[in-house]
């Protein structure tokens, strides 16, 4: 979660919720953090998992291990000591984890401005007036970024990118009944390699202003 600066550079006309979907390695989280710092809005990424764990009584490790995945997961050793008992089963469906995370996202969004990264938040908040953004970049750009960031070879970086993209697409498509990364699902689809991370954030802010969210 990003602490808002003492004075935001932009004044909000109305509650601003930005949902950011992203390809792996395109800098989507960095763009979100830039937006959060400049707008004075908190950014929620992994914090969603910790809040979901606190709300449900499940261990945060359960949510972390299965973050943006779909399926049925074993819970052995993954309940908080003070959590409620799960009678008759030691398995939990991905639908239940998604429901818990969705309730957390909706609770945060109903409380004030927020920026959400991933977790199909655009679908979860589809009945709210939000700005839905998908950030992408060419494979070559992402390979270079992931290779640098992770300290791995270009081939290993490409394999990781394809794996992560496949997981995110599978998660989004399953729970949203939509198609991850398809332009018609979003207000904006931006290539972060064209304007750079700060320039991409500038573009989103300008769009929010034109939509009437910002002065």
Model description:
The strands form two sheets. The protein has a five-stranded parallel beta sheet with strand order 2-5-1-6-7, sandwiched between helices. A two-stranded antiparallel sheet has the order 3-4. Helix 6 crosses helix 7. The radius of gyration is 18 Å and the shape is globular. Residues 2-8 and 72-90 have low confidence and may be disordered. The two termini are 24 Å apart. The longest helix is centred in the C-terminal third of the chain and has 23 residues, at 154-176. The protein is 48% helix and 13% strand. The protein has a single domain, classed as Rossmann fold (3-Layer(aba) Sandwich). It is an alpha/beta fold and 215 residues long. The protein is built from eight helices and seven strands, in the order E-H-E-H-H-E-E-H-E-H-E-H-H-E-H.
The CATH architecture category equals 3-Layer(aba) Sandwich
**What is the CATH C-level name?**
Alpha Beta
Major sheet description:
5 strands, parallel
Q: Strand tally, please?
A: 7
- CATH fold annotation: Rossmann fold
Q: How are the strands of the largest sheet arranged?
A: 2-5-1-6-7
* Contiguous helical run count: 8
Helix content: 40-55%
What is the mean pLDDT?
A: 85
> What is the gyration radius calculated from CA atoms?
18 Å
Strand proportion, as a percent range, falls in: 5-15%
* CATH superfamily descriptor: P-loop containing nucleotide triphosphate hydrolases
3D shape: globular
Q: What's the order of the H and E elements?
A: EHEHHEEHEHEHHEH
Number of folding domains? 1
């Amino acid at each position: 979660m990003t602490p808002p600066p003492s004075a935001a550079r932009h004044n909000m006309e109305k509650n601003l919720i930005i949902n950011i979907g992203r390809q792996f390695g395109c800098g989507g989280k960095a763009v979100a953090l830039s937006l959060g710092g400049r707008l004075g809005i908190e950014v929620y990424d992994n914090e969603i998992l910790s809040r979901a764990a606190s709300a449900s009584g499940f261990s945060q490790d359960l949510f972390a291990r299965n973050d943006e995945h779909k399926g049925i997961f074993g819970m052995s050793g993954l309940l908080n000591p003070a959590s409620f008992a799960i009678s008759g089963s030691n398995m939990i469906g991905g639908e239940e984890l998604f429901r818990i995370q969705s309730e957390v996202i909706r609770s945060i969004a109903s409380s004030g401005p927020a920026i959400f990264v991933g977790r199909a938040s655009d679908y979860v908040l589809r009945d709210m007036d939000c700005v839905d953004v998908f950030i992408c970049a060419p494979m070559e750009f992402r390979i270079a970024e992931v290779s640098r960031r992770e300290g791995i070879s270009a081939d290993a970086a490409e394999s990781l990118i394809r794996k992560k993209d496949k997981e995110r697409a599978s998660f989004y498509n399953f729970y949203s009944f939509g198609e991850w990364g398809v332009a018609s699902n979003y207000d904006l689809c931006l290539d972060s390699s064209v304007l750079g991370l700060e320039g991409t954030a500038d573009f989103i802010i300008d769009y929010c202003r034109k939509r009437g969210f910002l002065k």
